[in-house]
Design goal:
Strand content: under 5%
Largest sheet: 3 strands, antiparallel
Number of strands: 3
Distance between the termini: 52 Å
CATH architecture of the largest domain: Up-down Bundle
Structural class: mainly alpha
CATH class of the largest domain: Mainly Alpha
Strand order of the largest sheet: 1-3-2
Number of helices: 11
Shape: globular
Order of helices and strands: HHEHHEEHHHHHHH
Length: 240
């Protein structure tokens, strides 16, 4: 292969993937409630909506199957996952075990040069919440949390947390917006980042723990108390 051919290959590899774009769009539609839990969607009908063939739709849906957002229905299509209150309890419990200590570990490792970008991400989260843009909110929220967690240095942990976060969003972001709770939840990110930037790892861990608890109390909209997790009383302690 000549150098000219290689340069062409590099340029091609940087082009955006249709599959990735479709996966992101479908994920956002599911999480925001535009695609309804329990309903079956066929690849051909979704392909017509996007103006593309059914093939990248099927590929994207298989990615979402692995995330637990949809279930493949042979010869029918894909059914959007319905999540029960007990499912939410389990997902929330796992997030409480994983995310706060990961943020605590990451806090002293984040370079000073990263904070300006992280602050812009938080501003994007709040701005999206203020204007009621659920898709942008979800994207900015996920980008911020993953940007923090990457400094913990565990790629598998990030993949697992991304999946868990997606599953909790199935509980109706639109209802949270309608009840006027989305903006207050968004602004908590400023407080979390303040603690991280001041290198207060213990406080950052505690704030993230409290933020995740809202998944059970606020995001579900059922008025129940947050799930109790073993060791919760020690949630502000140091990472062992």
């Amino acid at each position: 292969m000549t150098g000219e051919d290689l340069r062409s290959l590099v340029r091609f590899s940087k082009q955006p993937s249709i599959r990735d774009s479709v996966t992101r769009a479908l994920r956002s539609a599911i999480i925001s409630g535009e695609m309804q839990p329990g309903r079956v969607y066929s690849a051909p009908s979704l392909g017509e909506h996007f103006g593309i063939s059914a093939t990248p739709i099927r590929e994207a849906m298989l990615d979402l199957v692995r995330e637990g957002l949809v279930v493949a229905m042979p010869n029918r299509g894909f059914r959007v996952t319905e999540v029960s209150a007990s499912d939410l309890d389990e997902v929330t419990e796992l997030r409480l075990f994983l995310e706060p200590p990961a943020v605590e570990k990451a806090t002293p490792l984040i370079p000073e040069s990263a904070f300006a970008g992280l602050r812009r991400q938080v501003d994007e989260i709040v701005a999206a919440a203020d204007r009621g843009d659920l898709v942008d909110y979800l994207s900015a929220d996920s980008d911020f949390h993953i940007a923090i967690l990457q400094y913990a240095g565990n790629a598998r942990l990030i993949t697992l947390i991304q999946s868990l976060r997606s599953q909790t969003r199935l509980f109706g972001l639109s209802e949270l917006l309608e009840r006027g709770h989305l903006t207050s939840s968004a602004r908590e990110h400023h407080t979390i980042l303040d603690a991280i930037e001041s290198r207060d790892a213990t406080r950052a861990r505690s704030l993230v723990f409290s933020h995740i608890e809202h998944v059970r109390a606020d995001w579900s909209g059922d008025g129940e108390e947050p799930v109790e997790v073993a060791g919760a009383a020690d949630r502000t302690g140091s990472l062992s």
